[in-house]
Amino acid sequence: MSAASQPSRPPRLPLAPVRLAHARSGAALRGGAARRRATLAAALALAILLAGCGSAAPGRPLSLPARLPAANGSHVAVIVLENREIGEVIGNPEAPYLNRLAHRYALATGYYGVTHPSLPNYLALTGGSTFGIGTDCTSCSVSQSNIVDQLEAAHISWRAYMEGMPHPCYRGAEAAAGGYAKKHDPFMYYDDVAGNAARCAKIVPYGRLGAALRTGSLPTFVWITPNLCDDAHNCDLAPADRFLQSVLPALTREIGPHGAIFITFDEGTSNLGCCGGQAAGGRVATIAIGPQVKRGARVGVPYDHYSLLGTVERMLGLPLLRGAGSRQTSLLAAMFQGGRLPSLRRGGRPGPARTHRAR
């Protein structure tokens, strides 16, 4: 969906008249006035916070110890945030941590969302197509192959961690209490995932990521969708920045020698695009993090969500689905050392770069 509108100014809170039941000393009166001012200030701060976050609120950070078990192999993770052009993110003081990541690791400066609104972009990231869906429908479904089919066929472990999801395989359109929205959970749209009990049980509440990190049982493929505030859909960038800062230090330590984490935004607020016309969802910030990522790189190759899907597939030794294998699609190899993607399936030996320029 399009970016949330700017928060409205909260209403001025009137001071209720106070009647004194008996005489008080001047000091007591001053103390009471100070307490009332403090209470009013706290209420006003809360009103501003709620106005900025709409109906969603930041989620609870994972509870993680200072030390975690050694990484079990290598892993690839995808984190999707919401509705910002790259110029609204890079250099924005609301997101100091995200900007430090962009400075330290590799930033794609020519990366584009596929379309508008949200859902088709999430499908592109997991199925290589929008499948003709052009809305944030919650009763629609897709009966085509997807990345879960590939992971299951190759016996590659995976989990999708959804912040605010009440329980695994939750089928509701939203869960207001936790800020979960189905339109940001592409896995529940695939018939052979949502309709398969064993597969659907791997779409789980975000809190279970903490258990996986604490026990050294992180799956090979990790997908993370923050809630509607922590992904910056209903809130400004500050909660999203804090969300990333709460999980990425631990996740970065656990992805292993050949792993990578990709942070992207589903769409921007413009119709800018690339790649022979297959993407027109705005130019968004996308960051690659990992041991084999080029440090401090700014990569201007034209990329889109099919590029990210294809990159994950190539790193895992999987075939390229639909748009990921298009002649218009460049994989994210230029963001890695030597211009070659690391492989998680062949002892970490680099995979072929296979980079095409957009036409």
Report on this model:
This protein is α/β, with parallel strands linked by helices and 359 residues long. It has a single domain (76-339), classed as 3-Layer(aba) Sandwich (Alkaline Phosphatase, subunit A), CATH 3.40.720. It is 28% helix and 12% strand. It has 9 helices and 12 strands. The protein has helices at 26-53, 96-104, 118-127, 147-153, 191-194, 197-200, 207-214, 237-254, 305-315, and strands spanning 76-81, 106-108, 111-112, 158-162, 174-175, 180-181, 203-205, 221-225, 260-265, 286-289, 298-299, 303-304. An 8-stranded mixed sheet has the order 7-4-8-1-9-10-2-11, sandwiched between helices. A two-stranded parallel ribbon has the order 3-12. A two-stranded antiparallel ribbon has the order 5-6.
| Global outline | globular
Beta-strand segment tally: 12
Q: The CATH topology is what?
A: Alkaline Phosphatase, subunit A
State the major sheet.
8 strands, mixed
Radius of gyration: 22 Å
Give the full name of the CATH homologous superfamily: Alkaline Phosphatase, subunit A
What is the average of the pLDDT values?
87
Structural class: alpha/beta
Low-pLDDT segments: 1-29, 41-54, 350-359
Helix content: 25-40%
Which H/E pattern describes the elements? Answer: HEHEEHHEEEHHEHEHEEEEH
The side-by-side strand order for the widest beta sheet comes to 7-4-8-1-9-10-2-11
- The separation of the N and C termini measures 28 Å
Q: Proportion of β residues?
A: 5-15%
Any idea of the CATH class?
Alpha Beta
Number of domains: 1
Number of helices: 9
Q: Please give the CATH architecture.
A: 3-Layer(aba) Sandwich
Q: State the oligomer.
A: single chain
